[in-house]
Design goal:
Shape: elongated
Distance between the termini: 50 Å
Number of strands: 15
Helix content: 25-40%
Length: 300
């Protein structure tokens, strides 16, 4: 989401008795109605004062012509300094069980934002309720930063997976397996993610799956030899799974293949081989699974 566009208008009640706490909500997905990060005065973002008046009238359910009598609007500069974080929380609507109310606020830190949310929501706050934190980037725009349980403050932000290069059919196969293993596709970030509290043995299995299908190209350094020797060498490469890149005019293998077999053609490639690392991870995963099974058996 991009909250940079638009102009901020400070909404100052002309009558001090007018309650302002109900301004701490979103008007829509694109327009914030919250508190000014500098002096805590209520403010609204809109493209013009007229639009700000109309939206406030709709929100308060009063005629727009009355808004001018009840509120004065002061335009804030678009370049004004903003707080580091923007929090969003969806709470139950007491008047409509099927609709959520959207509450937003600015804060200097994650901790301060969570504390203010707790104070606003109060006793209605359930242990599993979460909020979303966005952080201001160098362009002044807020980007998704994390997800937290409001009551405990625990970070439950999903961990993104770095998928290696793969062919289309390999990718479809791997993502199908990832889904079965508890990973999910995040549409906002366009990345596959896993829960932050995923058990280590499951995460290890995912790491092994990705490494086994890593189709990063590793180019081979073939020596200068005679025509007959070169023909024999390339024939051996074909039989052992190597391929030829016509664009780069070089032979290559995939990273998930056993690099030890091609050691003499891999100048500068780090050892031990990828296969050895995979085997090590598999052994660790198997040991963890065995230990978990034995633990369950003892309980039973």
């Amino acid at each position: 989401m991009n909250y940079k566009n638009g102009i901020d208008y400070m909404c100052v009640p002309t009558d001090p008795a007018v309650a302002e706490d109900d301004l701490l909500i979103h008007v829509s997905r694109k327009d914030i109605l919250s508190r000014d990060p500098r002096d805590e005065a209520p403010h609204m973002r809109a493209n013009s004062e007229a639009i700000a008046r109309e939206r406030l009238a709709t929100l308060k359910d009063i005629p727009v012509e009355k808004i001018g009598e009840m509120y004065s609007f002061k335009r804030l500069e678009e370049t004004a300094e903003r707080k580091e974080f923007l929090f969003t929380y969806y709470r139950n609507n007491p008047e409509n069980d099927n609709k959520k109310e959207k509450l937003s606020l600015f804060a200097d830190s994650i901790q301060n934002g969570l504390e203010e949310l707790r104070s606003i929501v109060g006793e209605r706050l359930a242990s599993g309720e979460r909020c979303y934190a966005m952080k201001r980037n160098e362009n002044g725009e807020y980007e998704q930063n994390g997800m937290y349980l409001i009551k405990s403050g625990r970070d439950i932000t999903p961990i993104p997976l770095e998928l290696p290069p793969m062919k289309k059919d390999t990718f479809e196969k791997v993502t199908s397996e990832l889904s079965k293993m508890g990973a999910k596709f995040n549409k906002a970030s366009k990345k596959w993610v896993v829960p932050r509290n995923m058990p280590k043995e499951k995460r290890s299995q995912i790491d092994v799956l990705l490494a086994e299908h890593d189709e990063t190209k590793v180019y081979l350094d073939l020596p200068a030899v005679g025509r007959n020797t070169f023909a024999s060498m390339t024939e051996w490469l074909k039989k052992n799974g190597a391929s030829y890149d016509a664009n780069k005019k070089s032979w290559y293998i995939f990273k998930h293949q056993n690099l030890d077999k091609y050691e003499k053609y891999l100048s500068g490639i780090k050892k031990p081989s990828v296969l050895a690392n995979l085997n090590s991870k598999k052994e660790q995963t198997e040991k963890s699974s065995e230990a978990a099974t034995k633990k369950k058996e003892k309980v039973l």
